[in-house]
Specification:
By secondary structure, the chain is α+β, with helices and mostly antiparallel strands. It has 4 helices and 4 strands; from the N terminus they run H-H-E-E-H-H-E-E. The chain folds into 2 domains: about 50 residues; about 45 residues, no CATH class. Strands 2-1-4-3 form a 4-stranded mixed β-sheet. The model has no long low-confidence stretch (mean pLDDT about 80).
Length: about 120
Amino acid sequence: MKPTILTQKNVCAFLGLIMALTILWSAKAEAKVDSINEVIPMELYESKETVQEEILPQLEIDFSKVKTEPTITFINKYGEVIAEFYGEKSVLESKFKDFFEKGEFITASGKHEFYLL
């Protein structure tokens, strides 16, 4: 029998060494990234906030008149929205008689009604 280096024991030991080195290398690289992300001088951080406050004007928008949910929604047979109407149902029925005559009531959720065209 010839002595050889490639025994099962030696191959497993070599693979274990490679895995250990890979784990150490990746941990070192991850620690380096974390240290770069954490180090921000406070002067730069505070000046960045003041610059953003000076550049961006404060806007006030009144959303009280915007309705979040339509009163009536018309959809086609594929479920695509054809029309959305906002306002009182009686007013909408008088203005859009054609839609209501052609459409078929499907369901309602609170004040929101769905019709199929």
